[in-house]
């Protein structure tokens, strides 16, 4: 549902901008092809009559493509261990969302001491929604809206390269909200964050009782990386 809302907001931004953009035209063509494939005459329906079905169809097609991607492991756990104080656990779901949590390395209530290079989780961790992502070949872009307790808010995008069992984030820049495009005059920062797939961490998707938003619970163990 988050992805559909995200997509609708993007479409609204496109169609209300100056003139009709290439993205809006491409969407219109794709929607028309969808209607024709369902034996529906595009000239005899209201513009948005089948649009929700079209969005669900597009989302399912993307899900299928992600499921056979040879590099990105969707709904699996990646871990970044390069931080001096915290370890980051991250999941890229098959509906193009990112989920994340961080814990302190020294938190003995969550992590066991390393044994033969392996650290176990003493209890399950919850990964919550952080942003959206898109793939182009082996390039991944992750768009996030960040809010701090202080009230500060900004939007950013990480750009990464997909490799076998690894995502290496190499760039970061500011964006407009719900966008992967760099803000005009924004500076691009070079980064080097390595997220490594950890097959012994198992993820379970759940739905929050109050909000009905999805999140993930993870448990198991991961291989310790030496900094």
Describe what you observe in this structure.
This protein has helices spanning 2-15, 22-37, 51-67, and strands at 77-80, 86-92, 97-104, 118-120, 125-136, 139-147, 153-163, 166-174, 189-197, 201-207, 214-223. It contains three helices and eleven strands. A hairpin with a 5-residue loop joins β1 and β2. The longest helix is centred in the first third of the chain and has 17 residues, at 51-67. The two termini are 38 Å apart. The protein has an eight-stranded antiparallel barrel. With 227 residues, the protein is of the alpha+beta class.
Which descriptors apply to this entry?
single chain; 227 residues; alpha+beta; 8-stranded antiparallel barrel
User: In terms of structural class, how would the helical and strand content be classed?
Assistant: alpha+beta
Mean pLDDT: 87
**Gyration radius, to the nearest Å?**
20 Å
| N to C succession of SSEs | HHHEEEEEEEEEEE
Q: How would you characterize the largest beta sheet?
A: 8 strands, antiparallel, barrel
Tally of strands:
11
Concise structural overview:
With 227 residues, the chain is an alpha+beta fold. It has 3 helices and 11 strands. The chain is globular and about 65 Å long.
Produce the secondary structure layout.
Layout: H1 2-15, H2 22-37, H3 51-67, E1 77-80, E2 86-92, E3 97-104, E4 118-120, E5 125-136, E6 139-147, E7 153-163, E8 166-174, E9 189-197, E10 201-207, E11 214-223
Antiparallel strand pairs: 1-2, 1-9, 2-3, 3-5, 4-11, 5-6, 5-11, 6-7, 7-8, 8-9, 10-11
């Amino acid at each position: 549902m988050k992805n559909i809302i995200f997509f609708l907001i993007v479409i609204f931004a496109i169609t209300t901008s100056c003139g009709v953009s290439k993205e809006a035209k491409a969407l219109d063509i794709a929607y028309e092809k969808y209607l024709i494939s369902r034996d529906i005459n595009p000239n005899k329906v209201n513009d948005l009559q089948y649009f929700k079905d079209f969005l669900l169809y597009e989302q399912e097609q993307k899900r299928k493509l992600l499921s056979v991607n040879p590099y990105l492991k969707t709904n699996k756990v990646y871990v970044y261990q390069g931080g001096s104080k915290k370890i980051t656990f991250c999941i890229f779901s098959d509906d193009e969302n990112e989920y994340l949590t961080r814990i302190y390395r020294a938190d003995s209530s969550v992590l066991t001491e390393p044994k033969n290079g392996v650290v176990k989780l003493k209890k399950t961790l919850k990964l919550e929604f952080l942003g959206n992502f898109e793939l182009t070949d082996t390039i991944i872009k992750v768009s996030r809206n960040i809010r701090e307790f202080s009230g500060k808010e900004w939007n950013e995008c990480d750009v990464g390269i997909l490799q076998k069992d690894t995502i290496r984030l190499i760039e970061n820049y500011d964006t407009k909200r719900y966008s992967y495009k760099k803000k005009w005059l924004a500076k691009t920062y070079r980064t080097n964050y390595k997220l490594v797939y950890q097959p012994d961490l198992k993820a379970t998707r759940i739905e929050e009782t109050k909000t009905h938003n999805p999140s993930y619970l993870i448990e198991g163990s991961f291989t310790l990386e030496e900094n």
